[in-house]
Specification:
With about 325 residues, the chain is an alpha/beta fold. The protein contains 11 helices and 11 strands.
Amino acid sequence: MRKHMTDFNNIRRTLVSLLLTGFIFIYSAVSGAQSDSIQLLNAFGEPGSSSKTAKIIAPKLEEYLNSAVELKYSQGRNAGVGAPADGKTMVMSTIGLMALLPGVVPDYPVNSLTDLRPITRTTGTPDMLVIRSGLGINTIEELIAYTNENPDALKYFHVAPTSIHRLEFAAIFGELGVRATLDTSRSNGNDDGMAGITDGTLDLMASTSPYMTQLISSGAAVPLAVIHPTRMPLFPDVPTLLELGATTMSSGSWAGVFAPGGTSDEDADRFYKALEFAMDDPEVVAAIGALGMEVNLSESPAEFSSFIESEMQRLRSAAEQYDFRTD
C-alpha cells in the first residue's frame, strides 16, 4: 500500500512538472512573439493619407517579415528619432516633415538623413485645389476671371502655416494670377477647412487627394486643378498645375518609410524588400489607387536619400521665391 502511494506521488509530481514546463514554454513563446513585433510609427493621425497607406500595407508587411506589425498614430515629426536601431521600428512620414521643413527651417530639430535612415518612398500623393460648389466656378480660368473682377473676395485655407499646401497656394497666386484672402480663423489641419467648404464659410482649399476627394464626392466642392506631374485617373478631366502654366510647385506630395538612425544595412534592406513585397500586391495597389494616390517605390534606400536631398533643394528655392516663413 505504501509503495502504491509513493508511486502515485511520483506520478503526480511528474505531471505537475510537465504542466509547469508547458506553461513556461507557452509564456515564453507569447512573450517572444510580442517582443519580436515591429512598430510602424505614423507621424500623422489615423485619418491621414500616409496613415491610411500604412494600414493598407501592414498585413503584407506581417506576411513578409513573419512578425506582427503594430501601428501607432500621431507620433509627430520626431517619430523614430532616438529609437533603438534594432530592426524593430519603422516610421511613415511625408514631404512636409521630411523635406520641406528640414530644408527651410534653420533650427528644425530633425535631420531626416541622419536622425533617421530613409528606406523608400511609398506613395505619390496628388494634391488638389478645390472650390466650394454653388459659386458657378468650374475651371481655373473661371476662377482667374472671377478674382480679377472681385479681388480678394474669396477666402482660402492652406491646412497649416508650415504645410506644403501654403507653398502651393503661393505658386497658384504668383504664377496664375489668382487672388484670395487667407482665412486666419481656421484651426490647423484638414477638418476645419473641410467643414468650411461644406457649410459655405470657406471658398478655396488645397490638400492631399484622399481628403479632397471626399469633398468632391459629397458634392460640396468642385476640383479645379491637380497638383501632381500627371492627371489623376479618378478625375481625368481635371488639368494639372503644370498644364495650366504653374511650374514651381507642380509635384504634389509624397510619403515614405524611414528607420531610426544607425539602422544596419541588413535591416534597411530587409525593410525595403518587405515594402517592395507589400506595394507589389495588386490589392494594395488598388486600395491605394482608390484613395487617389499611386504606388511610387524608390529604387533603393540610397536613391530615396538622394531624392530627399533634391526635394530639400527644390523646396528651399520655392520658399525663397515666395518668402515662405514659419515664424
